[in-house]
Amino acid sequence: MPELPEVETTLRGIKPKTEGHSIQSLIVRNGKLRWPVDSHLTDSLPGQKLTAINRRAKYLLLTLTSAKTGAISHLILHLGMSGNLRVLPHNTSVQKHDHIDLLFDNGYMLRYHDPRRFGAFLWTDQPLDQHPLLAHLAPEPLSDAFNASYLFQLAQAKSCSIKSFIMNNRYAVGVGNIYANESLFLSGIHPTTAAKKLTKKQTEVLVVNIKQVLAKAIEQGGTTLKDFLTPDGKPGYFEQELKVYGRENLPCSICSTPIQRIVQQQRASYFCPKCQPKK
Known about the structure:
Oligomer: single chain
Radius of gyration: 20 Å
Helix content: 10-25%
Strand content: 15-25%
Strand order of the largest sheet: 1-6-7-5
CATH architecture of the largest domain: Alpha-Beta Barrel
Order of helices and strands: HEHEEEEEEEHHHHEE
């Protein structure tokens, strides 16, 4: 699943050739995504100007301005389990699972490709911070609001595992399975440790590592573990930096102890039993 670094990479890739341009047309080949694509969009989007593209957690937020009335609306896009967005010339041939094309007046289009169709292409004319998908999200992990004091205070009342805790969007956003595993390894914290058992010092270290892991992944263009591609069709390279994820039975990069794998809430957790002792 594309996580925060992959979505941020996508944003940075699509922004230069789409932001500031007007929508010429919308082509929906298959609107049966996680939620059905509004049928009125093929008529209402043409003529709208894409005035800004932002990200909130794993959602891409496209702000539109009506050329006629100046009214503001938004598209909320999510890449689901297997989706990607690419900027392509209008005449690019259609491939299987190319479900939506958003064509702009500069000859480029934004193409949404999603084999499993778990993504989203939603429209709203309401304030984004009031939208049900966005209203209860935690602070952005690379912001100052996401800090050790914030996380430690929340963790004190949580008996769930620390891995589940930092993957919950109400407490931390964008820390998907890959990045949770990597952050916990760098912090020396076993993934099954109860969140409320973390000390202030451990929380400080964990927050620092979450920020560093996500920032490094963004710098490397995300992680390619199946079909994630950047908007220019290139793979992300953070996979080469992974210390524990997907490395079961391989030696730990620090102590050479074989990496172990367990399953938590149907997600694979990887850890070094020596560097991350269970307490």
